[in-house]
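Model: You mentioned two targets. I'll fold them one after the other.
Researcher: Yes, keep them separate.
Model: Target one:
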Amino acid sequence: KWKGEGTTQNLENIVIGRCYDYIRIVNPAVGEKNCSQIWEAFKNAFINKDPCSILPKDYELFINLSLHTIPPNKSLFWENNQLLVNSFAGRGRRYMSLGDTLFGFFGDFLNWCGQADSPGLDYESCPTTMECENNAVESFWRMASITYAQLSSGVIHVLLNGSADGGAYPQPGFFADYEIPNLQKSKISQIVIWVVDDIEGPDIDSCGIHSVKTLETRLKTLGYDVTCTDNNKSVMFLLCLD
């Protein structure tokens, strides 16, 4: 048995339903998509395989079938604050975070894995990233993150948690390892960093110091126009409301 929780019950129904929800209600602008075909491509990325030997490229067909554009100036990257980002993005009304794209919406908050030499899903347990990095979920989000970064353009925003243990900009991390290296510099006019502390939480990290300074330096060295703001008012209002 693996240490992680097993595949989410009713996974197929959930993700096909999410796909139709997305193209009909959340973001009809993406146009017609074949949700059953997208599910098959998703499943075939990890089914019948050793659950510790799934690679990001195994999801290429799934990504290609679910791909759509991200409007310029709408990209919102993040670390350590997923629920806040979901609220703030407003399902694409304000921003379009990875979880607000069709391919991200498809897998958000779900768990899944297959079994070697079996066409079934494993509902008992799935490997954690500590047990093996090349598991079905980790590789899915790596591929999704790479794709999301490549599609982002205009002014891009990064929302970081200034109260996070170990700093607002974790290394290793999805933003550091998969998103920054895949940004298309020619398509990006500015990178806006927002560092927001939890309400009544510790102020561990801020613009210009600690890990945020490391991030600012990295982005500036890469030639980006970077600005950074502590405790952006709009985000703080949302935190207060919650």
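Model: Target two:
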Amino acid sequence: VFIAQSRASGSHRDVEDEELTRIFVMIPKSYTEEDLREKFKMYGDIEYCSIIKNKTTGESKGLGYVRYLKPSQAARAIEECDRSYRAILAEPKNKSSESFEHDYYSNNTRQEPRGNTLPFCGQPEFCSFEKNETRIQESVSKRLSVVSRLPFIQEQLFALFDLVPGLEYCDVQRDPHTNSGYAVIQYSTAASAIYAKYKLHGFEYPPGNRLTVIFLEDGSDSSE
């Protein structure tokens, strides 16, 4: 299966290596790299684990990276690991890791909302990570909302999102007062929805028209 990607993503291999196999997690400061590997090895084959330490004292910052061999394994870890780990896809190594770690830590040490679900922020990810916390705050689900300046053709949109395995339905809705496009997409697993959102948010379809893809609440228990 070939997955469509935006022009800015670079080659498929680069994207897979840099952005789809490495996750960032919050851990107890007492964890060693072996402890981290032990907790996350059930989700797939781990290439390496690393714990972020204070450069001066050598003490753990309570943050770490886990790199898997396959994107599907990283997606499974994000979906199935305990919510206390706050697992997300890590920023590529060529971006400022210290800024990413600082924002991640400050965003995730705030007072928890009620329930298990992270608060949902409905804004598209157009801004930088520092200015927009959507990636941390949104609730992952199996359902996606797709918005476009141009109207959608049901068959074409279905074919595009069906490139990601597990598509259950594609419902194109039309607003009689505007010419914009809106659709609801649902997959059989949250892992498929995560991958579809990651690959197709910002994708130009048709060329020159960027798609906005965000998660929709699907009513499922966030602990599943």
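Researcher: Noted. Anything on target two?
Model: The radius of gyration is 18 Å.
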